[in-house]
Amino acid sequence: MFARRVMVVGTGYVGLTTGACLASLGHEVVCADIDEAKVERLRRGVVDIVEPGLAELVSEQTSAGRLSFVVGAGVALGSFEDGRAAEVLFLCVPTPMGAGGVADLRAVESVIEEVGAELAPGTVVVNKSTVPVGTAARTAELLDWTRSAAEPDRVSRSDVAVVSNPEFLREGSAVKDFLGPDRIVVGSDNQDAAERVAALYARLGAPTVLTDAASAELMKYAANCFLAMKLSYVNAMAELCERVGADIGDVTEGIGYDRRIGQAFLSPGPGWGGSCLPKDTHALLQVADSADFEFRLLRATIDTNTRQRQRIVDKVRLAVTGKRTGSLSRVRLALLGLTFKAGTDDLRDSPALAIAALLRQAGAELVGFDPAFVDGKDGAAPPTEIEGVALAADAVSAAQGAEAVLVLTEWPMFRTLDWSVIASAMKRPIVVDTRNVVDPATLRRAGLTAVGLGRRGEG
Ligand SMILES: NC(=O)C1=CN([C@@H]2O[C@H](COP(=O)(O)OP(=O)(O)OC[C@H]3O[C@@H](n4cnc5c(N)ncnc54)[C@H](O)[C@@H]3O)[C@@H](O)[C@H]2O)C=CC1
Ligand SMILES: O=C(O)[C@H]1O[C@H](OP(=O)(O)OP(=O)(O)OC[C@H]2O[C@@H](n3ccc(=O)[nH]c3=O)[C@H](O)[C@@H]2O)[C@H](O)[C@@H](O)[C@@H]1O
């Protein structure tokens, strides 16, 4: 295997995982970020995000001399051993939702503007950020522009190839997903560059799809939007189960045995969220719009998800007041789980927080507990409040005086809480389990009324 000199720009979930994992595959990796404090912490081996195995991998690879951290992409360029040039530059910067739902590519563009003219001939620029179709072509144009600005007599950067290599890792299992991917996708109009990028991962032995840049870019959105569609379908099916007296657990188990459907990603919930599915569904809708294609299925997927949050609020209202139009004014509610899913401390586009905002608008008083925020970061005290939700130190304290407990993420610890202690702390014994994660029989034995999603006999 060839060890390559790899520069990774952006040290978030994707960049830090990419950097540490590529180093563990034997490559020399320099990671750059604009966040000086983050780089300083990473140099001390402090990883801010909750990601199993990542901190260990970072310190192992740093000690082995294969992984280092610098502030700014420009500095990274000159940071390889013996002053040699980076061979591959990974862009792992944010591409958040911009105005009207389009992907905001300013971070990608600013890195190219920063270092484009300095890249050594033969460098491969790899886009790992999730970007709309056409971004590889646009990046190549930008590269030409940076060179022409720096060296007016040289207007082409055909000596630098651009490759799309979307990432499919999930938060909470980033290292495991990166090192054991279902597939690796590499797309470029420069076949040689694509093969060089694929070779970086050769030791993983994963199926590799080599394709053109546009197909690789679209594949990433196609995957995330398909997952979102699967979940909106399941959430709609759960609602139908309630109306016809069927059980969503049985229905999904039954359809999941069909290998064409599969058991994974079939759990109903408070709606899908996180830093990617929401922005990527909107971004693909914009891609479709600009291609004059009305992607109705995708729009319905998003609309179903938006409606799901209100549906949870309606369920709480009915459970607590006994009426569909009852008032939640000054009703105290305990929220278990505030992140977008269990196993992460990521709050970006969290359905739990969206539901909290709707409940607050309805006048409810909220106290939350989330296992991800029990300890503070880097020696600091844990937060006392998240987006207007006061934080309690444990589930029992959160439930004190509450008229209902809402389970909003699927942390395994919620299953094994002592629910009878929680029941005795509450003002009224109601649990709305938006993830169907706690055994309803356990709740009933603790004297609690259990309300889940799409469960037989719960209405
Ligand atoms: N979070 C996830 O699970 C996945 C994310 N993606 C995609 O990967 C990209 C990055 O996402 P995350 O890692 O979640 O983002 P993040 O927000 O966790 O990290 C991004 C990092 O880039 C840094 N940064 C921003 N501008 C920079 C610049 N000009 N130079 C150097 N550093 C800069 C930020 O300071 C931050 O540390 C996005 O396009 C996202 O859609 C793809 C697959 C999975
Ligand atoms: O592009 C990305 O950033 C990533 O987006 C998702 O990963 P992630 O955002 O970490 O979260 P998921 O595990 O996919 O969950 C997304 C949302 O769906 C919800 N979900 C998931 C599974 C399920 O059965 N039910 C359900 O409600 C989760 O609670 C969460 O709100 C994809 O799964 C990754 O493959 C992709 O790389």
TrEMBL record:
<keyword id="KW-0560">Oxidoreductase</keyword>
<dbReference type="Pfam" id="PF00984">
    <property type="entry name" value="UDPG_MGDP_dh"/>
</dbReference>
<dbReference type="Pfam" id="PF03720">
    <property type="entry name" value="UDPG_MGDP_dh_C"/>
</dbReference>
<dbReference type="InterPro" id="IPR014026">
    <property type="entry name" value="UDP-Glc/GDP-Man_DH_dimer"/>
</dbReference>
<dbReference type="InterPro" id="IPR036220">
    <property type="entry name" value="UDP-Glc/GDP-Man_DH_C_sf"/>
</dbReference>
<feature type="domain" description="UDP-glucose/GDP-mannose dehydrogenase C-terminal">
    <location>
        <begin position="334"/>
        <end position="440"/>
    </location>
</feature>
<dbReference type="GO" id="GO:0016491">
    <property type="term" value="F:oxidoreductase activity"/>
</dbReference>
<dbReference type="InterPro" id="IPR008927">
    <property type="entry name" value="6-PGluconate_DH-like_C_sf"/>
</dbReference>
<comment type="pathway">
    <text>Nucleotide-sugar biosynthesis; UDP-alpha-D-glucuronate biosynthesis; UDP-alpha-D-glucuronate from UDP-alpha-D-glucose: step 1/1.</text>
</comment>
<dbReference type="InterPro" id="IPR036291">
    <property type="entry name" value="NAD(P)-bd_dom_sf"/>
</dbReference>
<protein>
    <recommendedName>
        <fullName>UDP-glucose 6-dehydrogenase</fullName>
        <ecNumber>1.1.1.22</ecNumber>
    </recommendedName>
</protein>
<comment type="similarity">
    <text>Belongs to the UDP-glucose/GDP-mannose dehydrogenase family.</text>
</comment>
<dbReference type="Pfam" id="PF03721">
    <property type="entry name" value="UDPG_MGDP_dh_N"/>
</dbReference>
<dbReference type="InterPro" id="IPR001732">
    <property type="entry name" value="UDP-Glc/GDP-Man_DH_N"/>
</dbReference>
<dbReference type="InterPro" id="IPR014027">
    <property type="entry name" value="UDP-Glc/GDP-Man_DH_C"/>
</dbReference>
<keyword id="KW-0520">NAD</keyword>
<dbReference type="InterPro" id="IPR028357">
    <property type="entry name" value="UDPglc_DH_bac"/>
</dbReference>
<dbReference type="InterPro" id="IPR017476">
    <property type="entry name" value="UDP-Glc/GDP-Man"/>
</dbReference>
